[in-house]
């Protein structure tokens, strides 16, 4: 959305919150009401700031202003939802009173007014600490039918949706790298939405990813945010760092102890096909990078039937199933990031978070290792995922 309409819309929504809360707050405490009014004006004024300059020739505002705007965005989001919930509750109370129930109307109005900013602020504070801490390690076993004995225990560390940008910098990334390296996985997969900014702006902060260590290396697929930020430049930069970017292509990864398979039987018993596709929406930015799970398998040995796809969005799954993959590893959803937005993710994506079955294929959807926009996670914890293949 263009900046001016966004600013106007958020100003209107702040005005709605003020009209619904300030009169009752003033009756309780004039000083509290004035403080709330100042907070609402400040929030409405600063929420557009993170977007200033992002689509223009001039540089974005200083990160300090973007920090303020994003913090206010998270607080406002909860405040708006809770104000709507309060109004719905008051409407039900009014209906009950009209039907003959006894309702202490003044008390209900006053204390529900106090509860809204208190709960919004508490949720934002908890969400801030959840977002800024290093993501926990979540261990997930994926049962694969017909998994060769040599590939049992093959491990993939998934990092997803880190969103290096105005509030996620080098130190945050270094902590993620250190945690991932301790897992000593066979491979590391970064499933898109790594950055929110240009290479020139973020090169220094993304640099620690060159220190990721796994037996077969680190593999990356693009997410929609890479295309917003200039995908071609980022692909070149990630390759410069030593990461393998998979653009509708695959690599063959051998099992631990494999001596170099020669026959088809040996290939099937010791080789995992790890493929990656461009983002589901990539075709809208570059027709030559349209996401294609079938193309990602061109040239793969038929005997190697253990096939894993890295795809940023879960909605790539039907095409992945048709192409013959046994597991798709995705992100994009953030698990909703904070309530109640997790309730809306299923309107766009078939899976929100966790391990799910789509007919004969597993789909694992990460809640993300970082966060987008407001530094806030509430009810959807970030994760560094250790996926381990096991026999079904």
Automatic annotation (TrEMBL):
Source organism, top-level taxon: Bacteria
Per its UniProt record, what InterPro entries does this chain match?
Calcineurin-like_PHP (IPR004843), Metallo-depent_PP-like (IPR029052), Metallophosphoesterase_sf (IPR051158)
Q: What cellular component terms from Gene Ontology apply here? A: membrane
Q: What are the alphabetically sorted keywords of the record?
A: Hydrolase, Membrane, Metal-binding, Transmembrane, Transmembrane helix
Q: GO biological process annotations for this chain's record?
A: lipid A biosynthetic process
Domain named Calcineurin-like phosphoesterase is located at 155-335
Q: Does the keyword Transmembrane apply?
A: yes
The residue ranges crossing the membrane are: 7-27, 33-52, 64-85, 111-129
Q: Name one GO molecular function term.
A: UDP-2,3-diacylglucosamine hydrolase activity
Record-linked Pfam families: Metallophos
Q: What is this protein called?
A: Metallophosphoesterase
- Print the organism lineage: Bacteria, Pseudomonadati, Pseudomonadota, Betaproteobacteria, Burkholderiales
